[in-house]
Prior knowledge:
CATH topology of the largest domain: Serine Threonine Protein Phosphatase 5, Tetratricopeptide repeat
Oligomer: single chain
Strand content: under 5%
Mean pLDDT: 87
Number of domains: 3
Shape: elongated
Order of helices and strands: HHHHHHHHHHHHHH
Number of strands: 0
Amino acid sequence: MIQSTFQKIFALRTYSNILWILFLIIPFVKGYCQSTNSNNYFSPDNRLQFANYLYKDKDYLRAANEFKEYLKFNSNDTVQFRLSNSLFKIGRFTEASDNFKGLFFGSKLSEEARLMFFESNFFQSDFNSFRNLADQDVYLPQKYMKDIERLKFATYFFDNTTLPDENILLEPFPVSAQSQIAKFYIQKKFQLHKSPATAAILSALIPGAGKIYTGEIGDGITALVATALSAYLAYTNFKADHQFRGWLFTGLTAFFYGGNIYGSAASAQIYNARIRFDFDKEVKFYFEQRNYFLPQIDL
């Protein structure tokens, strides 16, 4: 009986100790579980925090991937805009424009998304399609109508489309910029191109004249001297009855003469390409420095 009593006391004490141990352990287990949950780096909230950090750090490629993962679980207009803008920043303009479209209707960011949609299309460099899109008046943002109009008229400087009336083109731009843009307008409309046909004809009449016409004076004089000297040597050798040398220098003369005509035409084409390249570079730099007169949208 005494043994039974001791067994009961021992069991009671053991049970009591277990309760105390559980009482002490449960808070730690609970805290551990909460900590584990908060350290779930792939949870939507943590991915969003990481994406926003990357976005502010201008790591747009990785930010876009994290925003995409977050949007699989939650719908958020700001996140959708940041995803689209990240794609825009890394030059994936077609994908960016498609994503901006998703904010056109029922979103407080609709106007900004429409502006960025047009910017995305502009930077795809299909300027004729951009002008058609702007003229359709379907997706135009009321708040940024003037900005889209400026973009539309800026496209005329970047392709070979005939320029519209000068006053119409200049009207959307700030008064402070109209003087410089008017200079670009005149430069493009009256670019001093050299005619390849004229250069070839001039060199056919007087060897080297076509090169001088295109501004390559040294090459023109060299072509004239080489052709004239070769012709003179051919003439003197025939006169001295040196047939072989006469025909040799005749062949050289024909080579110099034909090469001079071809080279003059090519020189005119190179001249025109250089003029166009310098003009495009100057215009692009001017507009880029002013962000194409567009507002900065960065939410």
